[in-house]
Design goal:
35% of the residues lie in helices and 17% in strands. By secondary structure, it is α+β, with helices and mostly antiparallel strands. A hairpin with a 2-residue loop joins strand 1 and strand 2.
């Protein structure tokens, strides 16, 4: 296997890593950069637990080779908010108690954030579409949808 130097910007920090040509972005994020908020569920792109934002688009990091992410900006859940200053989506998810097991929540928060970055006034259907690629076996989605819509309202209030 060929080794390659890959430069990534993850959560605003630059990284230069030597990777195998077959290394998945998911594994590089979790194992090399210790970003454990990125989860592996199915490994086939069906569950969405490994979702990250790459260059403003949601991607399943289990389906992206690390070399394909070269010179890209990537956001994981660790890059959204901070313990002392949570993102409005994180606050709303907690307010609505929209977590059960929590396995899908990092991906759901990223999907909601990405939606609001592109559409500050999403309809309920737009929110449903934005999270449709992420499986949640616990919550039934309703609380997550409500949380994302409340975060949209909060973000609009802050910008006014």
């Amino acid at each position: 296997m060929a080794k390659r130097l890959v430069k990534l910007n993850v959560n605003g920090k630059d990284h230069a890593l030597v990777v195998e040509s077959t290394d998945r972005l998911l594994d590089v994020l979790r194992d090399r950069l210790d970003l454990r908020g990125v989860k592996e569920g199915c490994g086939t792109g069906d569950c969405g637990a490994c979702t990250v934002i790459m260059e403003g688009q949601l991607v399943n990091s289990c389906l992206v080779l690390a070399v394909q992410a070269r010179d890209r900006r990537i956001t994981t859940i660790e890059g959204v908010g901070a313990r002392e200053k949570l993102h409005p989506i994180q606050k709303a998810v907690m307010k609505y108690n929209a977590t059960q097991c929590g396995f899908c929540i990092p991906a759901m928060v990223l999907a909601g954030k990405n939606l609001l970055d592109h559409n500050p006034t999403p309809s309920r259907d737009a929110v449903k579409e934005a999270i449709s690629g992420i499986l949640c076996r616990c919550t039934g989605y309703y609380k997550l949808i409500d949380a994302i819509q409340e975060a949209a309202d909060e973000l609009r209030r802050v910008k006014v």
